[in-house]
Design a protein that fits this description.
Layout lengths: L1 H17 L4 H21 L14 E8 L2 H16 L5 E7 L2 H6 L8 E4 L15 H12 L8 E5 L3 E3 L16 E6 L9 H6 L3 H4 L5 E8 H20 L25 H12 L3 E5 L3 E3 L7 H4 L3 E3 L4 E5 L23 E6 L1 H6 L34 E2 L4 E2 L13 H28 L13 E4 L11 E4 L52 H7 L4 H51 L3
Parallel strand pairs: 1-2, 1-4, 2-3, 6-8, 9-10
Antiparallel strand pairs: 4-7, 5-10, 6-7, 11-12, 13-14, 15-16
Helix pairs in contact: 1-2, 2-14, 3-12, 5-8, 8-9
Length: about 575
């Protein structure tokens, strides 16, 4: 359009001196405007023709591996994403070696991008957290859907989504160059001498922030930061200056026997994004750790529940069990007869044994033997923002506000929501993959009863009701493969193909990318479902055809009605050029 206007201006200038007509330049203007309009319409609409919504432009991703411990977490996170009605896409980044992948049975849990394993790039240090930045880098470099969405929401596998994350709500403001992220106060190395060890540029150190867990990136920002995230994770993990006895990392688990900080990856992210020039909008209350009491109105109704710690519910002296209480909330000097009413530690699920079954998705294992222990209904208080065990909210205007009296009751309620969500995730997958007809499954939308069996904590439970949450944000066809209402289990082609390793990469050359060809992988690689692609192409072709027809008609009008004028000015121009010696 700009070029066409410039040509018209040039034509007018020439016409003053030479009589040369500018009709041709004007004729091309509507054609270019039509093409520009068609591109704008295509970019601002979904494949089904509806105007594109901001919420459709989100791609949720998280890192996992091929262990059963990660399988049930993936199933639960995926189901929570579906239950809250999140549009857009969601993808599991699965780090798995070729041999394990050949027998891996759970590629159909959800849309999945397979990456190599990165946890053994250092033969002397098996560090599982290398898989996180390694898989992020692999995804951004190898998956064509990585830059298809405007925003990328990075989560941890051990999270449950309660509300869709969006940069327009909840103070989660993000923009190109600025990442919204959760506050992690124990990253004290941001403020001490550790920062200068790894970020030498004082200007870059101004970008440092104590963040982690979840982030919302402008997609191209993650592409820019991912290589540095991986690089600085390796630097922090291998640099002896950050090892024991140095205490400046904030890692309380560092010892002489285990001298490397486990949170090296978190520092790798913080330092890498700072070097990449990214700033952070640090948000304190988006997530609530299960087992912790909310501290403000936002954490009372969090977007995410993170279950990274042991969860316990006590009764102080056994006097009042309603709502429970945490160990931290009790004064051990005055409460010597504390009663443990309920507890759960996810790390016991990793170890297995006893009442803890590692593989919770295996079809030949009865669900009753793998179900997570739910919080008994009698421990749920009345002042926690909802009524009853079905999760419906109170009608009062302050139903989701923190008060002096309802913090502990809310803590127990959030734990109840978490355990129910974990069970719903496992049940959703088992119904899909195993054809398991379970009365307690919430996907059918019917309320039913789940009996709380005795668990390792010694707690005998009661019957609680499980009801599927209704989606709060309707999805639209074509906003991503995550919109499908189910994931079809298909036979998996376990063939592999090598991936070229860059010359400057620190990865061993023998690492290969195990590529699968199952339906979820094929859908993942497409920016829209196949039918929508066809519709979009047809719409674009119609716009291009109309544009050319419009341009042709306009040219014809110019020739018919302005022909004499143009020819007369042309003859005059020839006379002028002959007189001044231009010809």
């Amino acid at each position: 359009l700009a070029r066409c206007l410039a040509m018209c201006a040039e034509g007018r200038a020439r016409r003053r001196h030479s009589g040369r007509p500018s009709c041709a330049h004007l004729a091309s203007l509507p054609l270019l405007m039509a093409i520009l309009g068609s591109l704008l319409v295509s970019a601002s609409s979904n494949a089904d023709g509806h105007p594109r919504r901001e919420i459709d432009d989100y791609h949720y991703i998280f890192s996992a591996d091929c262990k059963p411990y990660m399988d049930w977490q993936s199933a639960a996170l995926f189901q929570s994403w579906r239950a809250v009605g999140s549009p857009g896409r969601i993808t599991r980044l699965l780090s798995c070696d070729e041999q394990t992948l050949s027998t891996y049975a759970y590629l159909d849990i959800m849309p999945t991008h397979v990456t190599p394993r990165f946890d053994h790039i250092d033969p002397n240090d098996g560090y599982a957290a290398y898989n996180l930045p390694g898989s992020m880098l692999h995804f951004m470099e190898h998956n064509e859907s990585a830059l298809a969405s405007k925003w990328i929401v990075k989560l941890d596998a051990d999270m449950i989504i309660r509300k869709p994350l969006t940069v327009t709500q909840g103070g989660l403001d993000a923009s190109p160059g600025t990442v919204a992220a959760g506050f992690y106060g124990y990253l004290v190395g941001v403020d001490n001498e550790m920062a200068a060890m790894f970020v030498e540029d004082p200007e870059a150190r101004k970008n440092l922030a104590k963040v982690g867990g979840w982030e919302i990136f402008f997609a191209s920002d993650l592409a820019k930061a991912a290589p540095l995230w991986f690089e600085y994770t390796k630097k922090v993990r291998t640099d002896p200056r950050a090892h024991w006895p140095f205490r400046g990392t904030g890692d309380v688990f560092i010892t002489k026997e285990s001298p490397r900080p486990w949170i090296s990856e978190m520092y790798g992210y913080v330092f890498g994004t700072a070097i990449a020039g990214l700033k952070h909008n640090v948000v304190h209350s988006t997530q609530l750790y299960a087992g912790m009491s909310p501290w403000d109105d936002e954490s009372f109704d969090p977007f995410l529940v993170h279950y990274g710690i042991n969860v316990e519910i006590f009764a102080a002296n056994g006097i009042d069990a309603t709502g429970g209480t945490s160990r931290e909330a009790m004064d051990s000097a005055t409460h010597k007869n504390n009663i443990l009413l309920w507890s759960w530690d996810k790390h016991r699920e990793l170890q297995g044994g006893g009442a803890f079954t590692k593989n919770k998705l295996k079809c030949d294992v009865p669900f009753d033997s793998v179900r997570f222990p739910e919080v008994p209904g009698e421990l749920l208080g009345d002042d926690d923002g909802v009524n009853g065990v079905d999760g419906t909210r109170n009608g009062g205007s302050n139903s989701l506000k923190l008060t002096r009296s309802n913090g502990e009751a809310r803590r127990v309620r959030v734990v109840h929501e978490l355990m129910k969500a974990l069970n719903e995730g496992v049940l959703a997958y088992r119904e899909r993959a195993c054809g398991e007809a379970t009365e307690s499954h919430a996907l059918g939308g019917k309320a039913s009863t789940v009996k709380n069996e005795p668990h390792a904590s010694g707690t005998s439970g009661t019957s609680v009701t499980v009801k599927k949450p209704q989606p709060k944000l309707p999805r639209r066809l074509g906003s991503g493969e995550g919109d499908t209402q189910g994931v079809v289990s298909t036979p998996v082609d376990t063939s592999t193909e090598s991936v070229e390793i860059p010359e400057d990469s620190d990865l061993p050359s023998e690492i290969v990318h195990a590529k699968t060809n199952d339906s979820s992988q094929l859908l993942l690689s497409a920016k829209t479902p196949p039918t929508s692609v066809t519709e979009q192409n047809e719409l674009r072709n119609v716009w291009v055809l109309v544009s050319f027809v419009w341009g042709a008609v306009f040219v014809w009008v110019c020739v018919v009605f302005w022909g004499k004028y143009c020819r007369r000015r042309t003859r005059g121009g020839n006379v002028v050029r002959q007189r001044v010696g231009w010809v």
